[in-house]
Design goal:
Layout (H helix, E strand, L loop, with lengths): L4 H24 L7 H4 L15 H30 L4 E7 L3 H9 L14 E7 L2 E7 L14 E7 L3 H19 L5 E7 L22 E5 L10 E4 L16 H5 L4 E8 L5 H11 L6 E6 L8 H12 L1 E6 L8 H8 L3 E5 L16 H5 L5 E3 L5 H10 L2 H35 L3
Parallel strand pairs: 1-3, 1-4, 4-5, 5-6, 6-7, 8-9, 8-10, 10-11, 11-12
Antiparallel strand pairs: 2-3
Protein backbone atom coordinates (compact mmCIF):
# COMPACT_ATOMS: atom_id res chain seq x y z
CA UNK A 1 0.00 0.00 0.00
CA UNK A 2 1.42 3.33 -0.91
CA UNK A 3 1.61 5.95 1.91
CA UNK A 4 0.82 9.46 0.84
CA UNK A 5 3.76 11.83 1.00
CA UNK A 6 1.89 14.26 3.18
CA UNK A 7 1.22 11.66 5.89
CA UNK A 8 4.83 10.47 5.83
CA UNK A 9 6.07 14.00 6.26
CA UNK A 10 3.75 14.59 9.24
CA UNK A 11 4.86 11.30 10.84
CA UNK A 12 8.54 12.33 10.62
CA UNK A 13 7.73 15.75 12.08
CA UNK A 14 5.87 14.10 14.99
CA UNK A 15 8.72 11.69 15.77
CA UNK A 16 11.25 14.55 15.80
CA UNK A 17 9.14 16.65 18.18
CA UNK A 18 8.59 13.69 20.50
CA UNK A 19 12.34 12.92 20.64
CA UNK A 20 13.14 16.60 21.31
CA UNK A 21 10.66 16.76 24.17
CA UNK A 22 12.07 13.56 25.72
CA UNK A 23 15.62 14.90 25.52
CA UNK A 24 14.65 18.20 27.07
CA UNK A 25 12.89 16.45 29.93
CA UNK A 26 15.97 14.34 30.77
CA UNK A 27 18.27 17.36 30.71
CA UNK A 28 16.19 19.78 32.75
CA UNK A 29 13.83 17.75 34.93
CA UNK A 30 15.35 14.28 35.67
CA UNK A 31 16.51 13.64 39.41
CA UNK A 32 18.17 10.28 39.07
CA UNK A 33 19.48 8.99 42.49
CA UNK A 34 23.09 8.03 42.94
CA UNK A 35 23.69 5.13 45.33
CA UNK A 36 26.50 4.98 47.94
CA UNK A 37 28.14 2.30 45.83
CA UNK A 38 28.44 4.67 42.89
CA UNK A 39 29.91 7.34 45.08
CA UNK A 40 33.01 5.18 45.79
CA UNK A 41 35.15 5.60 42.76
CA UNK A 42 38.62 4.52 41.86
CA UNK A 43 41.15 7.16 42.75
CA UNK A 44 42.80 6.74 39.38
CA UNK A 45 39.51 7.24 37.41
CA UNK A 46 37.86 9.88 39.61
CA UNK A 47 37.71 13.41 38.27
CA UNK A 48 40.68 15.39 39.66
CA UNK A 49 38.86 18.70 39.70
CA UNK A 50 35.73 17.51 41.55
CA UNK A 51 35.08 19.80 44.55
CA UNK A 52 33.85 18.44 47.93
CA UNK A 53 32.65 21.20 50.29
CA UNK A 54 33.16 18.91 53.37
CA UNK A 55 36.64 17.71 52.41
CA UNK A 56 38.62 19.83 54.94
CA UNK A 57 36.26 18.96 57.78
CA UNK A 58 36.63 15.24 56.98
CA UNK A 59 40.44 15.49 57.02
CA UNK A 60 40.44 17.24 60.41
CA UNK A 61 38.10 14.64 61.85
CA UNK A 62 40.25 11.75 60.64
CA UNK A 63 43.42 13.36 62.02
CA UNK A 64 41.84 13.90 65.44
CA UNK A 65 40.57 10.32 65.45
CA UNK A 66 44.06 8.98 64.71
CA UNK A 67 45.57 11.14 67.44
CA UNK A 68 43.07 9.87 70.01
CA UNK A 69 43.67 6.28 68.99
CA UNK A 70 47.45 6.76 69.38
CA UNK A 71 47.05 8.48 72.77
CA UNK A 72 44.83 5.68 74.02
CA UNK A 73 47.36 3.08 72.85
CA UNK A 74 50.14 4.89 74.72
CA UNK A 75 47.94 5.07 77.82
CA UNK A 76 47.37 1.31 77.72
CA UNK A 77 51.11 0.68 77.23
CA UNK A 78 51.96 2.98 80.13
CA UNK A 79 49.48 1.24 82.43
CA UNK A 80 50.90 -2.11 81.43
CA UNK A 81 54.38 -0.93 82.42
CA UNK A 82 53.17 0.52 85.72
CA UNK A 83 51.50 -2.77 86.63
CA UNK A 84 54.81 -4.55 86.23
CA UNK A 85 56.76 -1.87 88.11
CA UNK A 86 56.99 -2.47 91.90
CA UNK A 87 55.09 0.10 93.94
CA UNK A 88 57.21 2.21 96.30
CA UNK A 89 56.25 3.75 99.62
CA UNK A 90 57.52 6.80 101.51
CA UNK A 91 58.46 6.92 105.20
CA UNK A 92 59.89 9.86 107.09
CA UNK A 93 62.19 9.40 110.12
CA UNK A 94 62.60 12.07 112.81
CA UNK A 95 65.73 11.40 114.86
CA UNK A 96 65.18 13.05 118.24
CA UNK A 97 67.61 10.75 120.11
CA UNK A 98 71.22 9.82 119.39
CA UNK A 99 70.31 6.20 118.64
CA UNK A 100 68.69 7.58 115.50
CA UNK A 101 72.18 7.96 114.04
CA UNK A 102 72.90 4.29 114.73
CA UNK A 103 69.63 3.41 112.96
CA UNK A 104 70.36 5.65 109.97
CA UNK A 105 74.12 5.40 109.43
CA UNK A 106 75.05 2.01 110.89
CA UNK A 107 71.94 -0.10 110.20
CA UNK A 108 70.18 1.50 107.22
CA UNK A 109 73.56 2.69 105.84
CA UNK A 110 72.32 6.14 104.91
CA UNK A 111 74.40 9.30 104.55
CA UNK A 112 73.67 12.74 106.00
CA UNK A 113 74.06 16.25 104.68
CA UNK A 114 75.94 18.15 105.97
CA UNK A 115 78.54 15.68 107.22
CA UNK A 116 79.38 17.89 110.21
CA UNK A 117 78.19 15.91 113.24
CA UNK A 118 77.39 19.03 115.27
CA UNK A 119 75.33 20.73 112.54
CA UNK A 120 71.98 22.09 113.70
CA UNK A 121 70.07 20.42 110.87
CA UNK A 122 71.04 17.22 109.02
CA UNK A 123 69.04 15.20 106.52
CA UNK A 124 69.35 12.26 104.15
CA UNK A 125 67.45 9.93 101.83
CA UNK A 126 67.79 6.26 100.90
CA UNK A 127 65.87 3.33 99.44
CA UNK A 128 65.46 0.00 101.22
CA UNK A 129 63.13 -2.73 100.02
CA UNK A 130 59.96 -1.02 98.76
CA UNK A 131 60.46 1.97 101.07
CA UNK A 132 61.96 5.37 100.30
CA UNK A 133 63.19 6.82 103.60
CA UNK A 134 63.91 10.46 104.39
CA UNK A 135 65.66 11.32 107.65
CA UNK A 136 65.85 14.54 109.68
CA UNK A 137 67.90 15.10 112.82
CA UNK A 138 69.64 17.84 114.81
CA UNK A 139 68.66 20.53 117.35
CA UNK A 140 66.93 22.60 114.64
CA UNK A 141 64.46 19.79 113.93
CA UNK A 142 61.61 21.13 116.04
CA UNK A 143 57.88 20.51 116.18
CA UNK A 144 55.97 22.08 113.31
CA UNK A 145 59.08 22.93 111.28
CA UNK A 146 59.86 19.60 109.63
CA UNK A 147 58.71 19.22 106.01
CA UNK A 148 56.10 16.45 106.03
CA UNK A 149 55.02 15.30 102.57
CA UNK A 150 54.08 11.72 103.46
CA UNK A 151 51.70 10.08 105.92
CA UNK A 152 54.03 7.44 107.43
CA UNK A 153 56.39 8.42 110.24
CA UNK A 154 59.11 6.85 112.40
CA UNK A 155 59.95 8.78 115.58
CA UNK A 156 63.26 8.05 117.38
CA UNK A 157 63.09 8.89 121.10
CA UNK A 158 65.04 8.56 124.36
CA UNK A 159 63.22 7.22 127.42
CA UNK A 160 66.20 6.33 129.61
CA UNK A 161 65.49 8.88 132.36
CA UNK A 162 62.68 11.16 133.46
CA UNK A 163 63.98 14.33 131.78
CA UNK A 164 64.23 12.47 128.47
CA UNK A 165 60.77 11.00 128.99
CA UNK A 166 59.25 14.48 129.39
CA UNK A 167 60.90 15.63 126.17
CA UNK A 168 59.78 12.51 124.30
CA UNK A 169 56.21 12.89 125.57
CA UNK A 170 55.96 16.34 123.99
CA UNK A 171 57.00 14.86 120.62
CA UNK A 172 54.44 12.09 120.95
CA UNK A 173 51.70 14.61 121.68
CA UNK A 174 52.73 16.60 118.61
CA UNK A 175 52.52 13.49 116.42
CA UNK A 176 49.21 12.55 118.01
CA UNK A 177 47.80 15.88 116.83
CA UNK A 178 49.03 15.11 113.30
CA UNK A 179 47.26 11.75 113.44
CA UNK A 180 44.01 13.33 114.61
CA UNK A 181 44.19 15.87 111.78
CA UNK A 182 44.75 12.98 109.31
CA UNK A 183 48.11 14.41 108.29
CA UNK A 184 49.79 11.21 109.49
CA UNK A 185 48.27 7.73 109.19
CA UNK A 186 51.02 5.35 110.38
CA UNK A 187 53.47 5.81 113.28
CA UNK A 188 56.38 3.73 114.58
CA UNK A 189 58.65 4.59 117.51
CA UNK A 190 62.28 3.53 117.99
CA UNK A 191 62.90 3.93 121.72
CA UNK A 192 66.06 3.92 123.80
CA UNK A 193 64.29 2.31 126.72
CA UNK A 194 64.98 2.51 130.42
CA UNK A 195 67.89 0.28 131.54
CA UNK A 196 65.62 -1.39 134.10
CA UNK A 197 62.94 -1.77 131.37
CA UNK A 198 60.54 0.61 133.13
CA UNK A 199 58.79 1.99 130.03
CA UNK A 200 55.19 2.18 131.27
CA UNK A 201 54.96 5.87 130.31
CA UNK A 202 54.76 5.00 126.59
CA UNK A 203 52.21 2.21 127.04
CA UNK A 204 49.07 4.40 126.58
CA UNK A 205 50.38 5.62 123.21
CA UNK A 206 50.49 2.10 121.73
CA UNK A 207 47.62 1.21 119.42
CA UNK A 208 46.98 -2.01 121.33
CA UNK A 209 46.10 0.20 124.34
CA UNK A 210 43.92 2.60 122.35
CA UNK A 211 46.73 4.89 121.21
CA UNK A 212 48.11 5.71 117.78
CA UNK A 213 51.58 4.08 117.71
CA UNK A 214 51.44 1.06 115.39
CA UNK A 215 54.94 -0.28 116.11
CA UNK A 216 57.49 0.00 118.91
CA UNK A 217 61.18 -0.93 118.52
CA UNK A 218 62.66 -0.87 122.03
CA UNK A 219 66.23 -1.24 123.33
CA UNK A 220 66.97 -3.76 126.15
CA UNK A 221 65.17 -7.00 127.02
CA UNK A 222 61.70 -5.57 127.51
CA UNK A 223 59.03 -8.09 128.57
CA UNK A 224 56.68 -6.38 126.08
CA UNK A 225 58.52 -7.76 123.07
CA UNK A 226 56.19 -10.07 121.10
CA UNK A 227 57.51 -9.64 117.53
CA UNK A 228 54.05 -8.49 116.47
CA UNK A 229 53.83 -4.83 117.40
CA UNK A 230 56.78 -4.60 119.85
CA UNK A 231 60.26 -5.56 118.67
CA UNK A 232 63.66 -5.54 120.37
CA UNK A 233 66.21 -3.14 118.95
CA UNK A 234 70.03 -3.11 119.46
CA UNK A 235 71.64 -0.41 121.58
CA UNK A 236 74.49 0.07 119.11
CA UNK A 237 77.51 2.32 119.50
CA UNK A 238 77.62 5.58 121.46
CA UNK A 239 76.87 7.98 118.61
CA UNK A 240 76.15 10.69 121.21
CA UNK A 241 79.88 10.52 122.04
CA UNK A 242 80.82 10.74 118.35
CA UNK A 243 81.81 7.08 118.00
CA UNK A 244 82.22 6.65 114.22
CA UNK A 245 81.07 4.11 111.65
CA UNK A 246 84.15 1.89 111.20
CA UNK A 247 84.67 0.28 107.80
CA UNK A 248 86.51 -3.09 107.96
CA UNK A 249 89.85 -3.18 106.13
CA UNK A 250 92.82 -5.52 105.73
CA UNK A 251 94.87 -3.73 108.40
CA UNK A 252 92.08 -4.14 110.93
CA UNK A 253 91.94 -7.89 110.27
CA UNK A 254 95.57 -8.91 109.83
CA UNK A 255 97.50 -6.56 112.12
CA UNK A 256 99.52 -7.98 115.01
CA UNK A 257 97.74 -6.69 118.11
CA UNK A 258 100.11 -6.19 121.04
CA UNK A 259 97.53 -6.52 123.85
CA UNK A 260 95.36 -9.42 124.92
CA UNK A 261 92.52 -7.31 126.27
CA UNK A 262 91.32 -3.83 127.22
CA UNK A 263 89.00 -2.13 129.67
CA UNK A 264 88.54 1.63 129.72
CA UNK A 265 85.59 2.85 131.73
CA UNK A 266 83.93 3.95 134.94
CA UNK A 267 84.38 1.72 137.99
CA UNK A 268 81.46 1.91 140.41
CA UNK A 269 81.84 1.09 144.10
CA UNK A 270 81.00 -2.52 145.01
CA UNK A 271 80.46 -3.46 141.37
CA UNK A 272 81.79 -6.39 139.35
CA UNK A 273 84.08 -3.87 137.66
CA UNK A 274 86.06 -3.65 140.88
CA UNK A 275 86.31 -7.45 140.82
CA UNK A 276 87.53 -7.35 137.23
CA UNK A 277 90.40 -4.97 137.98
CA UNK A 278 91.28 -6.89 141.11
CA UNK A 279 91.56 -10.18 139.18
CA UNK A 280 93.80 -8.56 136.56
CA UNK A 281 96.05 -7.04 139.21
CA UNK A 282 96.38 -10.10 141.43
CA UNK A 283 97.20 -12.42 138.54
CA UNK A 284 99.67 -10.01 136.96
CA UNK A 285 97.58 -9.96 133.78
CA UNK A 286 97.18 -6.18 133.91
CA UNK A 287 100.47 -5.96 131.97
CA UNK A 288 98.88 -7.85 129.06
CA UNK A 289 95.85 -5.57 128.91
CA UNK A 290 95.14 -1.87 128.42
CA UNK A 291 93.23 -0.60 131.42
CA UNK A 292 92.09 2.87 132.39
CA UNK A 293 89.60 3.28 135.21
CA UNK A 294 87.76 6.41 136.29
CA UNK A 295 85.48 6.85 139.27
CA UNK A 296 82.92 9.12 137.65
CA UNK A 297 81.03 8.59 134.39
CA UNK A 298 81.56 11.32 131.80
CA UNK A 299 78.75 11.93 129.28
CA UNK A 300 81.08 13.27 126.58
CA UNK A 301 84.42 12.19 125.18
CA UNK A 302 87.21 14.58 124.40
CA UNK A 303 89.00 14.16 121.10
CA UNK A 304 92.00 12.65 122.91
CA UNK A 305 89.96 10.24 125.04
CA UNK A 306 88.02 9.02 122.00
CA UNK A 307 91.24 8.41 120.09
CA UNK A 308 92.76 6.50 123.04
CA UNK A 309 89.65 4.38 123.32
CA UNK A 310 89.58 3.55 119.59
CA UNK A 311 93.30 2.72 119.68
CA UNK A 312 92.73 0.34 122.61
CA UNK A 313 89.99 -1.48 120.69
CA UNK A 314 92.16 -1.77 117.56
CA UNK A 315 95.21 -3.04 119.50
CA UNK A 316 93.44 -5.65 121.67
CA UNK A 317 92.27 -9.15 120.87
CA UNK A 318 89.54 -9.01 123.52
CA UNK A 319 87.38 -6.23 124.98
CA UNK A 320 86.17 -6.78 128.54
CA UNK A 321 82.48 -5.87 128.96
CA UNK A 322 81.35 -5.91 132.61
CA UNK A 323 77.72 -5.10 133.40
CA UNK A 324 76.63 -1.57 134.24
CA UNK A 325 73.01 -0.64 134.92
CA UNK A 326 72.20 -3.16 132.18
CA UNK A 327 74.12 -6.08 130.69
CA UNK A 328 73.84 -4.56 127.21
CA UNK A 329 76.30 -1.71 126.74
CA UNK A 330 77.76 0.39 123.93
CA UNK A 331 81.16 -1.24 124.49
CA UNK A 332 79.90 -4.55 123.03
CA UNK A 333 79.05 -3.00 119.64
CA UNK A 334 82.12 -0.76 119.61
CA UNK A 335 84.38 -3.78 120.17
CA UNK A 336 82.65 -5.56 117.26
CA UNK A 337 83.37 -2.55 115.04
CA UNK A 338 87.11 -3.09 115.52
CA UNK A 339 87.13 -6.89 115.48
CA UNK A 340 87.96 -7.12 119.19
CA UNK A 341 85.99 -10.02 120.67
CA UNK A 342 83.64 -8.91 123.50
CA UNK A 343 84.06 -10.84 126.75
CA UNK A 344 80.58 -10.31 128.19
CA UNK A 345 79.52 -10.68 131.80
CA UNK A 346 76.37 -12.72 131.22
CA UNK A 347 74.34 -11.91 134.33
CA UNK A 348 70.89 -10.42 134.91
CA UNK A 349 70.82 -6.86 136.24
CA UNK A 350 68.16 -5.48 138.66
CA UNK A 351 64.90 -4.25 137.20
CA UNK A 352 61.87 -5.53 135.31
CA UNK A 353 63.63 -6.72 132.15
CA UNK A 354 62.67 -10.13 130.79
CA UNK A 355 64.39 -13.12 132.34
CA UNK A 356 64.76 -16.68 131.17
CA UNK A 357 67.22 -19.01 129.49
CA UNK A 358 68.05 -16.58 126.69
CA UNK A 359 68.16 -13.39 128.78
CA UNK A 360 69.99 -11.12 129.02
CA UNK A 361 71.14 -10.05 125.54
CA UNK A 362 68.54 -12.28 123.90
CA UNK A 363 68.64 -10.33 120.62
CA UNK A 364 72.40 -10.80 120.22
CA UNK A 365 72.27 -14.43 121.33
CA UNK A 366 69.46 -15.18 118.88
CA UNK A 367 71.68 -13.76 116.13
CA UNK A 368 74.49 -16.14 117.10
CA UNK A 369 76.90 -13.51 118.44
CA UNK A 370 80.45 -15.01 118.53
CA UNK A 371 81.26 -13.55 121.95
CA UNK A 372 82.87 -15.04 125.04
CA UNK A 373 80.21 -15.19 127.79
CA UNK A 374 81.26 -15.52 131.44
CA UNK A 375 79.38 -15.41 134.73
CA UNK A 376 82.32 -14.47 136.97
CA UNK A 377 85.48 -12.45 136.24
CA UNK A 378 87.49 -15.06 138.06
CA UNK A 379 87.22 -17.03 134.79
CA UNK A 380 89.34 -14.39 133.05
CA UNK A 381 92.84 -15.86 133.79
CA UNK A 382 91.99 -19.14 132.04
CA UNK A 383 90.57 -17.21 129.08
CA UNK A 384 93.76 -15.18 128.69
CA UNK A 385 95.83 -18.35 129.00
CA UNK A 386 94.00 -19.79 125.99
CA UNK A 387 94.68 -16.55 124.14
CA UNK A 388 98.41 -16.99 124.56
CA UNK A 389 98.17 -20.46 123.05
CA UNK A 390 96.45 -19.22 119.86
CA UNK A 391 98.45 -18.63 116.69
CA UNK A 392 98.33 -15.37 114.75
CA UNK A 393 96.46 -17.14 111.95
CA UNK A 394 93.80 -18.30 114.38
CA UNK A 395 93.38 -14.80 115.78
CA UNK A 396 93.13 -13.30 112.31
CA UNK A 397 90.50 -15.84 111.31
CA UNK A 398 88.50 -15.10 114.48
CA UNK A 399 88.69 -11.36 113.80
CA UNK A 400 87.45 -11.86 110.26
CA UNK A 401 84.52 -13.97 111.43
CA UNK A 402 83.56 -11.39 114.07
CA UNK A 403 83.59 -8.52 111.59
CA UNK A 404 81.58 -10.58 109.08
CA UNK A 405 79.05 -11.48 111.77
CA UNK A 406 78.64 -7.87 112.87
CA UNK A 407 78.10 -6.74 109.28
CA UNK A 408 75.55 -9.52 108.78
CA UNK A 409 73.79 -8.64 112.04
CA UNK A 410 73.30 -5.03 110.97
CA UNK A 411 72.06 -6.19 107.55
CA UNK A 412 69.54 -8.49 109.22
CA UNK A 413 68.30 -5.64 111.41
CA UNK A 414 67.99 -3.43 108.33
CA UNK A 415 65.92 -6.01 106.46
CA UNK A 416 63.79 -6.84 109.49
CA UNK A 417 63.06 -3.18 110.23
CA UNK A 418 61.92 -2.51 106.66
CA UNK A 419 59.90 -5.73 106.42
CA UNK A 420 58.03 -4.88 109.62
CA UNK A 421 57.34 -1.31 108.39
CA UNK A 422 56.11 -2.55 105.00
CA UNK A 423 53.86 -5.19 106.53
CA UNK A 424 52.33 -2.91 109.19
CA UNK A 425 51.98 0.28 107.13
CA UNK A 426 51.44 -0.82 103.53
CA UNK A 427 50.15 -4.42 103.47
CA UNK A 428 46.65 -3.32 102.47
CA UNK A 429 47.77 -0.40 100.32
Amino acid sequence: MKIPKRKLFLLIIFAYVAFSLYAAYNVFFSTKAISRVHRVVNKDTAPQDEWNPWENEQVDYNSALNRNREAFKQYLDKNKINKNKPKRYKVQVWGKAAIGLYLWEHVLEGSLNPTDKIAQWREGELQCGKVDYSFYTGPAVVQGHVPLDMNSLVLVLNGREQQKVSYSTRWLEHVQALVHSRTVSHVAVVLLGNEQCNNDWIGPYLKRNGGFVDLLFVVYDSPWVNDKDVFQWPLGVATYRQFPLVRPNAQLITSNRPYSCNFLGTVYKNSSRETLLQVLSESGLDKECITSAREKWLPQETTDSLQRYQAALAQSELTLCPVGFNTECYRIYEACSYGSVPVVEDVQTPGTCASGSTAPLRLLKAAGAPFIFISDWKELPSILERERAMSQEQKVDRRRRLLEWYGSFRQQMKERFTEVIEDAFFKNA
